[in-house]
Amino acid sequence: xxxxxxxxxxxxxxxxxxxxxxxxxxxxxxxxxxxxxxxxxxxxxxxxxxxxxxxxxxxxxxxxxxxxxxxxxxxxxxxxxxxxxxxxxxxxxxxxxxxxxxxxxxxxxxxxxxxxxxxxxxxxxxxxxxxxxxxxxxxxxxxxxxxxxxxxxxxxxxxxxxxxxxxxxxxxxxxxxxxxxxxxxxxxxxxxxxxxxxxxxxxxxxxxxxxxxxxxxxxxxxxxxxxxxxxxxxxxxxxxxxxxxxxxxxxxxxxxxxxxxxxxxxxxxxxxxxxxxxxxxxxxxxxxxxxxxxxxxxxxxxxxxxxxxxxxxxxxxxxxxxxxxxxxxxxxxxxxxxxxxxxxxxxxxxxxxxxxxxxxxxxxxxxxxxxxxxx
Length: 375
What we know:
The protein is an alpha/beta fold. Helix content is 40%, strand content 14%. It contains 15 helices and 12 strands. Strands 4-3-2-1-10-9-6-5 form an 8-stranded parallel sheet. Strands 7-8 form a two-stranded antiparallel ribbon. A two-stranded antiparallel ribbon has the order 11-12. A hairpin with a 4-residue loop joins strand 11 (353-354) and strand 12 (359-360). Helix 3 runs parallel beside helix 5 (91-106) and helix 13 (285-302) runs parallel beside helix 14. It is globular. The two termini are 36 Å apart. The model is unreliable at 1-26 (pLDDT under 50).
């Protein structure tokens, strides 16, 4: 598929415009962010309800995130949390979301509302044996638009500089054009209602940097924030994570350097050797920068800012020195490309705040995250 190229004049204009973090706030509709974190497994990927759900993210959490030095949060939400199977609203989740957004404004945090999982599309469907009907079913696509009509009705009064919409997380269409067509369709529907709202749009196949070149977004819309996700190398970022192939390896790893030593690789069976062969070569900042650079190149050509909406390391068993080295390199790369970002996530499975202990459990990680450029 062909890559989109704007006229040379537009490319020159993009150099003057710069990335989102460098825009001024003179335009009241400008959504300006630099560093944030995801409020995960709260209104998404969780079956916890009632008071336990309400206490997972409170005003104190929003205040803490702001006090630490973050400037925004990404809030994943799922269809099943907000609507029952008959399409009726479930008021408790809506109240939690709007209360969180109110608190974000109170504490000077921007927010991205991310529709993470819908009934017709789950980014994990391929791994779980499920099937996404969204790509073949026009009614499912119209239903997605209807979800956003209802979200827009509830959120449209929040100023555009405070709240942005990510209308679908990590698309996994078999053909890139299926996603591009849906982008155009949802974009048109939302723009008829909210012409100045920032829309966060990622590429097909889990918003990977390798597929950014196939993404098509409507031209001439300055309120688009391109989004990628980045979890490479998976053998480190998902070290021993039970839900991934990469998590099957529990031997020693090195970063920067050759991730899996030759003698450890030799112990693997043939099937695992195929999975882990990519980690037997050198992994370092230069390699990561080259990968992220693919997305940055597309963003530059389109004259749009670039955002890494998810990145992080599964904390349970990850070797501390390797983990911190990786985080330092990623922060430097984001700064070099003038990218904004949000970690996956605030809570201690991938993050730094313990819900159980109600304390920061990884201060070195916080220090590294806040060592880079701010707004």
